[in-house]
Amino acid sequence: MTADAFSKQYCIYQELTQKDISWHVGAYVSPPISFYQPPVNNIYQLPSPTSYFDKYFNQNLLREIVENTNLYAVQNNTANFAPTTVQEVNNFIRMHVLMGNLSYPRVHLYWEPKFCVPLISENISLNRFFKLRQNLHFVPVIYKDPNNTDLRPLFDAIKSRCKDDLELEARLCIDEYYTFQGPDQCHSMCRTNRLNGA
């Protein structure tokens, strides 16, 4: 587009006529530009992902997991299972969060030379990972029942943190989902709508 064509289109867009435009010869002086700067008190520093993780998986919960995992391994006579520690279980859960974000199709790929993730492969061996995953327990075996309460301590810890620590915000975005049972007796998730609240 030529300069003349551009100036004609600009005049049409701004509803200007030739009489409204006057040209001057001289050096161009840029007008002052003021940028908006939000007040300092409105800037919110987000905590690190590690601090969010530590809020939900506190030391008491991790000690309970360690105790029940070691107890389960002893009760089942798991061969070559060295007792786990709070630090190892802490790292193990964090690795699962990382794996959930990366989503490799097979677990062993995190240790394969071509695809390995050093944060995982350098902290735990593949055999130890599977052995720990096989024996991981949140409650003692004597309390197990078919009503899926094995993860109750984890649910309770997360629920109490959500009630205590989450701050209510003025603007919310809520995704609503519901389950339905289809003709093949499988449960599916369906998105219904998204609500923006003020």
UniProtKB/TrEMBL annotation:
Pfam family, one: DDE_Tnp_1_7
Domain PiggyBac transposable element-derived protein: 48-179
Domain of life from the UniProt record: Eukaryota
Annotated InterPro entries: PGBD (IPR029526)
Name of the protein: PiggyBac transposable element-derived protein domain-containing protein
